[in-house]
Amino acid sequence: MSRAIVTVWKKEMRDAMRDRRSFMAAMGYAFFGPILMAIAFFFLIEQLSDRSAVAIDIEGAESAPNFAQFLTSQDIIQRQQAWPQGQQPITLSIPETWQSAMADGESVEVILRADFSAQKQRSDIERVQRAVQAYSTQVASMRLLMRGIEPQLVSPLTLQKQDLATAGSRAAMIMGSVLVFIILSVFWSGMNVAIDISAGERERHSLEFLLAQPLSSQALVWGKALTASTFALFGALLSLTIIPIVFSFVPLAQIGISMTLTAPMLLSMFLQLIPLALLATALQLFVSFRAKNFKEAQTYISFLLMVPMLAVFGVEFARIKSTVLAYLPLTGQHQAFLSLIRGEALNTVGVLVSALLTLVLSVGLLSYIGRMLKSEKTVFGL
């Protein structure tokens, strides 16, 4: 690394450290983000592991006492109080013809009325549905036995599930959002610094002064890029340090998940984030220098931050299984992180190729920015 780049890096680091806004932005995202994620997981686990009784409105329970007793055994009881404001009632209607239809071996239509789009009541509605289905299966088996027919005859196949998922693979399934958060830390933590040392310096008319010094535009760009990358990696390091501490207090074991982030795993993640931090900084500097002013740069970069989110979440929700993803920038780091969480062996070739491509893109983009700074249009924001 040339002395000119180191000099620019030291100068920009001193200026950035004086700016409390940039320092707090780098630290704030990495510090408060894991806490907010942990709180969200607390509510999720509470909802998934909640086995308290479901109180619903049961109409016509007197017509089917056995069915009502079965529902009670499944912790589905008659509601004794009014529904809270903002919640739609869950009502199970049993017809008066229940007894005669059961005696004649006929089908009985039971009506379940609820708001099936309500997220907070989804688990309660599903529990009622499962209970009704279980009772229906039980009655069907009894009817077959009364007619001298073995119930197994109408069920020639029995599916026995043997879950081979490990605690790590379950953790990867639900902790994918946390991994995305770690990756995004390199984009968020250095963002304010990247904008300030590019569009900000141009607005303060200090960029022309720097370009007038006896150093090349490439050295200037690399010094600025290393400054923003330092803040980006500081945020990533803070995230990797805080997340294991915060999530050690989250009762993931209640939903069959075990997440253990050892020191070698965290070190591996940090090393893989180094080229990604440089790419994030290069993209932010490019957008900032292309913008006309500081506010315009902030607007453009806010849209730029959606790119890594859409790329990673898009792969997750679309369930794309292409092996090419392990060799690409951004998705390669995400795939490697998933392997670490699952306890699988890392695709070393994929990690190296992804890192190399990330560095190549970063170097190419920074070289192009250096050439941009030779133009008055870029320097003066014309």
Automatic annotation (TrEMBL):
Its Gene Ontology molecular function terms?
ABC-type transporter activity
Going by the UniProt record, its keywords in alphabetical order are: Membrane, Transmembrane, Transmembrane helix
Superkingdom of this entry's organism?
Answer: Bacteria
For the keyword Transmembrane, the answer is yes
Q: Which GO terms describe its cellular component?
A: plasma membrane
Cell wall biogenesis/degradation listed as a keyword: no
Q: Give the stretches traversing the membrane.
A: 21-45, 171-195, 231-253, 265-287, 299-320, 349-369
Q: Which Pfam families match?
A: ABC2_membrane_2 (PF12679)
The name this protein carries in UniProt is: Na+ ABC transporter permease
| Species per Swiss-Prot/TrEMBL record | Idiomarina xiamenensis 10-D-4
